[in-house]
Amino acid sequence: xxxxxxxxxxxxxxxxxxxxxxxPAARGLCDAMAAGFPAPGDAxxxxxxxxxxxxxxxxxxxxxxxxxxxxxxxxxPAPGATDRPxxxxxxxxxxxxxxxxxxxxxxxxxxxxSGAVLVSADYRLAPxxxxxxxxxxxxxxxxxxxxAATALGCDPRRVVVAGDSSGGNLAAVTALRxxxxxxxxxxxxxxxxxxxxSGSVAAYGRGYFHTAAHMAWYWDQYGGDPAHPHVSxxxxxxPQLSALPRTLVLLADCDLLRDEGLAYARRLARAxxxxxxxxxxxxxxxxxxxxxxxxxAALAGAAAxxxxxxxxxxx
Length: 315
Fold this sequence. Notes:
Helix content is 36%, strand content 19%. It has helices at residues 8-14, 24-35, 43-49, 104-114, 133-148, 166-177, 199-204, 212-222, 238-241, 258-270, 293-307; strands spanning 61-67, 70-76, 84-90, 117-121, 154-164, 184-188, 246-254, 275-284.
């Protein structure tokens, strides 16, 4: 496990976290976000609260398309370039909310900083479309991206699945379903076990914006058998894990999902997977897209990791 501290301000701030584990800046953001966020139980209210933040950087080409029947947004920072990585990005939101617009700024930042073409998937949402609808959409977009890679100026052997929160779950399961199609997986604070029985759930399930009550409700809306590895990838058998590609797991220390991410990374490492964990102190779930030094450091590190994606299996 490694801890990224390439932002000097982040490193300094992490050394002065509050008594509850959060830095003062993170605690202020956490409280402000929680104050305006609905309780679990009303999908419409949650969706209304999930609004886009400040815009991201300019990207040379941004266009909407349809990939295998799924709406997508394609970000190309350098049209005409070749042999680049291609990232299939799956947004977070508890499988219930968010979409292309809420994650537009994050996708722009990742594409601009990595030089990769990024395909953001607008998969179907629960509860209207429970498991495995979102998962099937994710696989459809991956298959489309792999087939279109050369036309997009990318190497089909350098395709990565990525996602934050529930999108991280979808990315992890998509890699389990089709490990031969991906050269890497980027998992950002993903929910990986519907049992929700880790120590971090008890420690950070209240008071850190993303609550255990919300997470349990999201799991209920999503559906599926909690014991199935395509719902809870932490329960996948070792032979499946050993086939997985190069992996980067980004985690917030003050997050109820932290221990699931750590446990999954340990299992991947024991299975022989090239897996790196970057655990960020002083921050909470969702920090990647927030105006915090840790968020900037995590995003820059993730972009560098994506840019360095090696060639995987033959198409």
